[in-house]
Amino acid sequence: MKLRVLIVNGILAALYVAVTAVIAPFGFTNIQFRVSEMFNHLVVFNKKYIYGIVIGVFIANLLLSPMVGYDLVFGVGQSVISLLITILATKFIKGIWLRMIFNTIVFTFMMCLIAAELHLALNLPFLITWLTAAIGEFVVMAIGAPIIYMINKRLNFEKVV
Amino acid sequence: MMNIIIGQYVPGKSILHHMDPRSKLLAVFALIFIVFLANNWVTYGVIVILTLVAIVLSRVRLRFIYKGLKPILLVIIITFVLNAFFTKSGEAIFDYGWFHLTTGGLQQAAFISVRLLVIVIMTTLLTLTTTPIDITDGLENLLRPFKKLRFPVHEFALMMSIALRFIPTLMEETEKIMKAQTARGVEFSSGPLTQRIKAILPLLVPLFISAFKRAEDLAMAMEARGYRGDIGRTKLRLLKWGLKDSLLLLVVIVLIPVLVLLRG
């Protein structure tokens, strides 16, 4: 792995944690409203951002989530699986907007993993939990798409790493 | 807003503080799953006693543990109520339409709340007695076998260390930019939703620009100092596995057959 890729991803992970901590300290339990989840859209521009996002999720769950143990397994798992699906799909989907829409759908759907986590750990009803968790994720990802798109115009994410 | 503590580490000299991060990581991860073996009063009793022993050994003030539990109290209450009112087993205490309160439901609710409490306390103890850097070192070491499968273990640990180093810096930066934009009339915490969404953009653009600039500087500094990956690299802090670490793992391993034997 190139040094530049390493460092940019390290800093991106720090940014994920910082934004999680400062902007929305209410993002845990079954209504998830993490503004930083919109960073998931970065893989649409360049698949190398996956490391930073996954590490960001890992550290945020390790340091900030009260359900550390479960979130580390399921939360990180959800991010890894969803990001990989999107990365694989980008080969076939052309156009940034289409990819972002696809990414939003994948992440919203994969909240079933988080619902499974809460169902296993707390015996919460699976479908209702999935619905509430998915709504939060969908809102953040849908709002995040145009925001990340505009930031990309300034920064050109594809070329940074 | 700066009172959000990143990493809950509390310095101390207890036996838990002095343990190798690898043994603590392994034990906590194992316990998260082992707790599920408990299914009656005796097995839950064993686990609660173990948790209490761990709290005593950590010599962390209860105030800190309570702080770790506070954000999850609501979740515990919701879980308790949902489980108590929607589980039908045992004798009925109260029955009205959708709501049934039974002895079995109450027991189930109590068990699940205790399970959650135990897991949260165990993981809180890990982060209270281990610095994030130690956790990273421990993880890098534990994941070493995956190097053979060409998983970039060292690179991951380095990215984690960089992230941990820059979290406080970037948090400060985020707050600074938020204050600067608030001074210009941007509302982050009040006003209609659309306005608050629009407020995110003037926050994230400068934040990303400054973060990527820091990455640029760091890349240059590391290259100038001749960073070449993990080949021939030495460490400032060496991990030391001791008798107490082996003992901790032994307790965890013995716990499995004990719970299997005692469970109903």
UniProtKB/TrEMBL annotation, chain A:
Keywords: Membrane, Transmembrane, Transmembrane helix. The chain crosses the membrane at residues 6-28, 49-68, 74-93, 100-122, 128-151. Coiled coil: none annotated. The keyword Protein biosynthesis does not apply. It holds the Pfam family QueT. This is Membrane protein.
